[in-house]
């Protein structure tokens, strides 16, 4: 080719003018790729230049050094002659570079994606590699080229395609390399390139006659070059001796291609392949889990793994430390600079490539830029577009929000920085791990903290702490992974130590913990978040020892008062004054005695004061909690409460009780799930909301009640197998009740719905917990249960006009009471189920309980009930009630519970689904008709596969025990064993498998003292 011949002639001429000293100075130009023995043989300038030309070592960097040297020996004339060749050499080297293993990163691993490329080129002669920038596409191209060129008649060429100028230069240089001179450009670039391509095609066709084969690599095809490259590909594919590889980060490249099997998506290596990128020394000194964590952090990109391996091997840092260092700004860029020898051949690093892509995406819209600022602090996998839409500023019109999200999705697809997944109900975006890392590092620390705090506020407003509706539960679960990531990152901030941030973290962990507990899907995560929320709530009052507000075992024992004897010298349990008062009240009600009402009220207040004498800890805690809002930014909590997103049924309920027609602005706010100022003002005038100044105090106390109650409920099931949790659970339920009572006393016009829930549900669980810890007779246990039954019957018969509030805003009224009545009936059935276990009156208890079961069945027919998450639990409780007397009915309800949970699309095992399946197994084991045992075995085998032994250890072992019982029953049937033995074994199995009620007991605290009240509701 012309320009190369001119350069060769010039270099040889320069060589002749170099003296021996100049030659020694220039030997370093050759580099380490030439054996030392060959270097030693070079003595003249001509020999030096021959070597440079022969080894293709004349590049722009060496040319610059040669020019400097010529200046040093006063040969400016030769230097001037070299300058015109500087730009041409860049083009020549790009076009003629022989793609050998020198272009591969060290220790390149042949991955499954390499095999895919081989198959595509073997079958289709074409492979198009798509994926994120710097994901290893070019490395795969280089690897295949090196394999391709092992055949002497195979030649590979790489054409740069970042823009039309690059492609034009590559094509021109390629033709010049072949000794052809092309006319000057007189037409549009794309047309000129097509004409060049036709010439190249004719040359390849002539080469076909001599058995010559060609591989063309169109590297880094972009939006500007995609059309012309598509035309070239279409033309070249007609040649039998040409293979083509294209690499691109532009997803729309070659869209019209109907042969989808030519595409290879380069997303990163597999988990098993990731380990192969690390030297044995690194793998020996670091755990496999840490290496996998690093691979996840780097998105399994081969180049990122190579950089990590090189840095770790060279510096000796641990993999865990390397992962920590990745959080530092510019660390990854510095790693690339330090390990430059391992870099890919083209001048495009991992970080810089991502930065360029991000710049392109964010330049499309200021709103897209704001969304990109949030991405690093969300869980970058499966971000719901609904979440991104809500993160946009509220002053943007809904239609404009839709346009922004569509534009964002288009850019994610266009530049391959993530993937879009759509189902019938949701659409999610998964951003690549390295992109998320770069997005974070480009933000100054102040902007990072601002984004994280904004996310905390957002999630506190959009993750509802009342998730009893399917709508709110589903929304909470959708946002939870992203809220948890934001909370985790918030802890790392310096500003997280402020009271405002502590409150946000507390409220957020509480909402997440309650969601997991109510949904019954993740016991460990419920435990983790509720305990964090509890610790943070005590941190708000600067208390490092929450246990100081709980009763010790000794203090608890002092409440029992059992060592007294009556006139007949018989031992009995002396009730406290509050309980005596309640018994007196009940007797008076039965006799119709109301004349002593004033006297009884005075005595009631006296009893309450006496009871409080031992509860100063609760009062102290209450006083400290109501002072918290004063330590926060003024109005901070009120803003969170009033701007919290509310479900459509909740807002409709507020509008109904307020009798509010609403302005257009208010209706628009309601569509967004917000309580408008107009509606709030209307609620204030009707005493259906508390004023803004008092919202903070109510909110903090109610938040503590929610945390303690839910912690207690969660620990209730745990302490069935872990006795050390008994006192914790007992204390949490008790303290939640007492704080709720104090809240109701101070804000009597705004009774808390959480106090209602704590009193309603807590009564039973607290007393059952106490019964499990005492060696009392069945009669004494029955007395307590009878008292609870009367209490629930009173709740059901209470005035329908009662109102209850959540954070000072009306929550429950006569308009919305269905769920409360259903819960009372469920808890009544739980009491009657326990009363029917033994005793001469079990049949009577069954008849009494059956009336409530029938009422609950009627309630479940109401279409409004389908909105509630607890409905499967109602079916489970009805089934347990009918278990002994009407087995067929029990089976129907157990099946219905399982069906409902499956209809709700819960992918994971929920508590109610598990209990429904356990109930069916018990029914089949008890009935043992026809194929019952096989049905029971089928359910057990399904559960055994579904349960993770470490997370659901108790349930897993329960399933294993069921399988043993089923095998024993089947063996007994096959051997003709008598029915009496089968019944004995079956009863033993049932006793061993009961989750809630069976527990060896030691003592019974007088729980009723704190959990009864004469005029509930």
Automatic annotation (TrEMBL):
InterPro entries attached to this UniProt entry: DEATH-like_dom_sf (IPR011029), DED_dom (IPR001875), P-loop_NTPase (IPR027417)
GO biological process: regulation of apoptotic process
Disordered: annotated span: 590-612
Organism superkingdom: Eukaryota
DED domain sequence ranges: 6-84
Matching SMART domains: DED (SM00031)
Listed name of the protein: DED domain-containing protein
Organism of provenance: Mizuhopecten yessoensis
